[in-house]
Amino acid sequence: MSGTRLRHPVAAALAVAGYVIMIVPIGFVVATAFTAGSTLRFPPEGLSLTWFGEAVAYSPFMEAVVSSLELAALATALALVLGVPVTLAVHRGRIPGRGLLEGLFLSPLVVPELVVGLALYQQLMIGLHLDNFTTLLLGHTALLLPYAVRVTGASLALADPALEEAARGLGASPVRAFFTVTLPMLRPGLVSAGLLGFVTSFNNVPLSLLLQTRDFRTLPVTMLDYVQQSYDPMVAAASTLVLAATVVVAVVAERTVGFAKIFGGINR
Amino acid sequence: MRARSTLLLLLPGLAFLLVGFLLPAVAMLFAPPGVTFAQVIERMGAMLTDPYDLGIVWRTVRIGLVVTAVCVLLGFPIASLLARSRSRWAGVLLALAIFPLLLSNVVRTFGWLVVLGSNGVIGQLLTGLGLVEKAPQLLYTELAIVLGLVQLFLPLAVITCYSAVAQVDPGLEEAARGLGASRTRTFWSILVPLSLPGVVVAATLVFAGSVTAYTTPYLLGGSSQRMLSTQLFSYASVTVDWAAASATAVVMTVLVFLVSGISALVGRKGAVS
């Protein structure tokens, strides 16, 4: 690495410290998941798969997995279906206050999620008696809208409007021009926004926290509650399974669009 | 595109945004159930004079600042190392830094329970080596919260600094080196100033994330080290004190807005000069 400038020992030491903090605790979660003992102790007492069996057999976790998948899939799909037209209007429409409008759709990123959760709990669940699934779906969709608008917007900005005009000039209807010309150009943005949205919704705690009921609970909040009540390695096993699933998602993300691109788009 | 079709495209998204976010947020502030806006303001005034509540605000700000400083201090070297490296390992290391962003915060924070807990890695190591008789209390301290939050937000700092460094033309640094500047001097007088706007963005994102995070202070801080977020949850869910919950929410939101505003001003000034 003779080409790098940061061979300075201080810089290298800081970088190593950073990686240790980011990665090592995750390794310990995996290590404790395979313990044969019944406490969160390190080094683990013996090796077994007991706690994986326990985690899979624990019905609150399994129900929560299904609930979280369902919520994340619906919210992501809804955010894309609502967000893509907004992107089109913002980028292709001739409207005043375009910047302001885009800012409005990005605003859910700015307000703390816990505050939004409180607002939805208080106003929609208690005030309007909406059930918690509907409230969660509304909240998660609003939270994912900024991702849908911004990330697909970045794709649209790269697409040449002349192609759509050509399609229209050749007699295609606006709807047909959208589906045959614009939408294919948006695909990388749609995949990125979809992946990012799904993961964000699936992992969310602050927004979902106050919106839980016995009938419909999300996985991260269920795991959080479990850790607080009992201090056994079952959550380590559940965490390891979540980690494994996340690795699969990461590999898919890297193969389809590329990691850095997905995350580069959201915080410009 | 005609104005009417533009409006039609916007309407469904706008409706969701209003119902799922904007209206409830505004209503929570002005009209919590059975509470008036005046009472929320009054509660906020009480919060900012009460030593216990003020202690929580101060702890939140303090933790936010420390986490931000540490994330920049660790994140910038990682970012500049990766952005300027020609090694093929740089891609792998970058992916390793981004991967945690996909992983659940609960899973990431849980790792610290294993590391810092009374039977955890550090405690066992210290007692095993005979350095201390009894494992020190590491969990449920501010240090634990800071470590947890640094782990959570360092990836964000790395990728934001990475795009900032990547935008700086390497030719400038080569020119400085060619004119006789040392590596250290080139780093401080070329790379750092030119990527500063990106670093400010990174710092803002980390601070806003830290002062609003819930999972980390809940698991690693417990009830003795309350932050605004855990306090808000307790008001909303345990004591059901709507005025206090709304007041806490306002303080938290204003804190984030204030810091974002300041950083936007700093960023604009930096771009001009």
Looking at this protein, list some descriptive labels.
heterodimer; A: 268 residues; mainly alpha; MetI-like fold; disordered N terminus; B: 273 residues; 12 helices
Number of domains of chain B: 1
* Overall outline of chain B: globular
Mean pLDDT of chain B: 90
| Continuous helix count of chain B | 12
Strand content of chain A: under 5%
**How many structural domains does the protein architecture of chain A include?**
1
According to CATH, the homologous superfamily of chain A is MetI-like
Biggest sheet layout of chain B:
none
The amount of helix of chain B comes to: over 70%
Give the helices and strands of chain A as they follow along the chain: HHHHHHHHHHH
**Could you say what the CATH architecture of chain A is?**
Orthogonal Bundle
The global form of chain A is globular
Structural class of chain B: mainly alpha
| CATH overall fold name of chain A | MetI-like fold
Model description:
The complex is a heterodimer of chains A (about 270) and B (about 270). Chain A has one domain (about 60-230, about 245-265): MetI-like (MetI-like fold). In chain A, about 75% of the residues lie in helices and about 0% in strands. Chain A has helices at about 10-35, 50-55, 60-90, 100-105, 115-125, 130-160, 160-170, 175-205, 220-230, 235-255, 260-265. The two termini of chain A are about 30 Å apart. In chain A, about 50% of the residues are buried. Residues about 1-5 of chain A have low confidence and may be disordered. Chain B is about 80% helix and about 0% strand. Chain B contains twelve helices and no strands. The mean pLDDT of chain B is about 90. Chain B is globular, with a radius of gyration of 23 Å. Chain B has helices at about 5-30, 35-45, 50-85, 90-100, 105-115, 120-130, 140-165, 170-180, 185-210, 215-220, 230-240, 240-270. Chain B is mainly α. Chain B has a single domain (about 35-270), classed as MetI-like (MetI-like fold, Orthogonal Bundle). The chains are: A mainly alpha (about 270), B mainly alpha (about 270). The interface between A and B is large, with 98 and 102 residues.
